[in-house]
Amino acid sequence: MDRLKLVLPNIKYKESIMDYKNEFIRNGDSMDGTAGLANAQSFEEWYQAFKDNLKEETVREGLVPATTYLAIDETNKLVGMIDIRHELNEYLLNYGGHIGYSVRKSERRKGYATEMLKLSLEKCKELNIKRVLITCDKNNIASACTILKNGGEFENEIIDGHEVTQRYWINLL
């Protein structure tokens, strides 16, 4: 399965990251696990926020320390992004979880999300996270399948208005 590698963003990937963002915008997709890429006005703005959010001392207000990775395939193409939150605040405990991820539309249905999540769980072990919470929208069957394939155990659903969030735990012990 090792078709992907997770790498930290850097200036070398600027064009790929902006192309990734533009593909999501063109398709009207949600950019989950991209550390706010959707709202960044430029690569430089996004990259500074990414660096700030790596450490407790510099994390942006209202956020928790997190590491965002690029999922790069064997041809060096950016196929997905995944964000690992080092800890949970109340919002993440209910709705966001430890990990958020997305795969560009042109690369979906190839098993990349499952592989990305598997690789990110190894990163969680390095961060000494023993139980990983992953959530998804109840209507996102593909994401639920990805979580289950990686050992996710369904805990419950949280209803917020018309939105239903499913919560899964993965034990890394």
CATH fold label: Aminopeptidase
Q: Which stretches are poorly predicted, pLDDT < 50 over at least 5 residues?
A: none
Helix content: 25-40%
Helix/strand/pairing category: alpha+beta
Q: For the largest beta sheet, what order do the strands appear in spatially?
A: 1-2-3-4
Mind telling me the CATH class? Alpha Beta
For CATH, the homologous superfamily is named as: Gcn5-related N-acetyltransferase (GNAT)
Level-2 CATH architecture: 3-Layer(aba) Sandwich
Helix run count: 5
**What's the mean pLDDT score?**
96
Provide an overview of this structure:
It is a single chain. The chain is an alpha+beta fold. The chain has helices spanning about 15-25, 45-50, 90-95, 110-125, 140-150; strands spanning about 5, 65-70, 80-85, 100-105, 130-135, 155-160, 165-170. It has a single domain (about 5-170), classed as Aminopeptidase, CATH 3.40.630. About 30% of the residues lie in helices and about 25% in strands. The strands form two sheets. The protein has a four-stranded antiparallel β-sheet with strand order 1-2-3-4, with helices on both faces. A three-stranded antiparallel β-sheet has the order 5-7-6, with helices on both faces. A hairpin with a 2-residue loop joins strand 6 (about 155-160) and strand 7.
Task: Summarize this entry quickly.
With 173 residues, the protein is of the alpha+beta class. The chain is built from 5 helices and 7 strands.
Task: Furnish the topology, listing elements before pairings.
Blueprint (H helix, E strand, L loop, with lengths): L4 E3 L6 H14 L15 H10 L13 E7 L5 E8 L4 H7 L2 E5 L8 H15 L4 E7 L3 H9 L3 E8 L2 E9 L2
Antiparallel strand pairs: 1-2, 2-3, 3-4, 5-7, 6-7
